Amino acid sequence: MPDVEWPAGFERTDERQREPYPHGFRVDRRRAFENILEQLKKLGAEEVRIDSGATQKTMNPNLLSQESDPDDPSVVVYFQKDGQDFAVPCDKWDNVRDNAQAIAKYLDAKRALDRYGVKTVESEFTTQKLPPGDEEEAERDGGSGGAADSSVEDQPPHKVLGVASDAGDEEVKAAARALKKEYHPDTGGNIEKFNQVLEAEKILLGGRG
Q1: What is the CATH number of domain 151-206?
Q2: Phi/psi-derived region of residue 118, left when phi > 0, alpha when psi is between -120 and 50, beta in every other case
Q3: DSSP 5
Q4: Could you tell me how far CA 32 lies from the centroid of its own chain?
Q5: pTM for this one?
C-alpha cells in the first residue's frame, strides 16, 4: 500500500493514541471520500488531491477502489484556492474512514464561518497554508503544529472569536457557534480552544448587560 505524503510542518499523532471516532460516523469509507470532494467543490478548490494509505482508483485517485485497511490510516487533502496551496491532514483516528470524514466535517465547519458572515473562508484557511520550502521561513510562519496557530491565550475575546470589537450579540453568537462546532472535543476538536471560545463568548455577551 502507498505511503501517505504527510505535509511538512504538521504534527503526527502517536499511533498508540489513535482510536475509533467514539460516536461513529454513519458513512462508509467511499462516502467519506466523496464528502470531502463535495465540500471542496463548494469551497471552489482546484487541483484537489486526496492522499491516503488506502488503495484508490486509477482513473479517479481521489476515490477508494476497495475497502482496504492500511497500516497508516492517515488522510491528507491537498488543494489550491486563489493560487495558494493548502493541506488539511488528519491522523487522529485509527481508520481511514473516520479520518476522511473528520476532514469533510472540518471543511464544512470552515465554510460555515463564511456563511455566518463572521470571516471569509480565505482568512480561515490561512492556518492550513503549506509552509514555504525554506525551513527558516517555515519556522517563522509557525509550522510546528497541525493548525499552525499562534497562542490565543493573550488575545482579547473578540479576537478569539474573529469578530469586530463592537460586534453585535447575534454576530458573536454565530461566530461562537461555528467555532464550538469546529473545536468540540466530541468530534475530535481541541478542548483548550473550545474552552477559550466558551470564555470569550461569555465575556462578550456578559459584558453587555
Answers
A1: 1.10.287.110
A2: alpha
A3: -
A4: 15
A5: 0.55
Of 144, 68, 135, the closest CA to residue 100 belongs to 68
Q: Where are the domains of the chain?
A: 15-128, 151-206
Cα(49)–Cα(37) distance, integer angstroms: 9
Residues 6+ apart with CB under 8 A from 151: none
3-state class (DSSP) for residue 100 = helix
4, containing H or E segment? none
Radius of gyration over every alpha carbon of the chain, rounded to an integer in angstroms: 18
pLDDT tens for 87-97 read 889 998 888 88
Q: Is the pLDDT of residue 36 over 90?
A: yes
Find cell 495558494 and name the residue: 84
> Per the structure block, which three cell numbers stand in for 106?
472540518
DSSP state, 186? G
* Cβ-Cβ contacts under 8 Å for 131 (sequence gap 6 or more): 8, 9, 137, 138, 141, 143, 148
Nearest to 100 by CA among 137, 75, 123: 75
Inform me whether the pLDDT recorded for 139 exceeds 60. no
- The mean pLDDT value for 129-154 works out to 43
